[in-house]
Amino acid sequence: MRVLIVESNPDLGGLWQRHLERLGAEVELVPDETGAIHALRMRDFEIIVLDLVIEEGAALAISDFASYRRPDARVIFVTNTSFFSDGSIFHHSANACAFVQSGTPPEDIAAMVEHYAAAP
Description:
Blueprint: E1 2-6, H1 10-22, E2 26-30, H2 33-42, E3 47-51, H3 59-69, E4 74-79, H4 89-92, E5 96-101, H5 106-118
Parallel strand pairs: 1-2, 1-3, 3-4, 4-5
Helix pairs in contact: 1-5, 2-3
């Protein structure tokens, strides 16, 4: 299972990365749009854990690029805001499979990654 995490907060991204690696996932952690686009150009990923509010770049641009470059990759959006809390993210991103708060326990995020990576 190959996972791309796009998270500007290295502590939070690292926490998710460690939980996923314990499940046997191969994880790449990048802080911004530039890193995410480069990673998507170079490798295939089953799942992208994408913070909706990254410091540099736009999360929806990453999601759009992924849907073009890696159409089978699914996106779990995370956020610490109420933006898109109405579920409209699923109308804006065809590859979105989940939308959770950044404070979600890392073991729950890892379980969602494992679930959606296994889904056809």
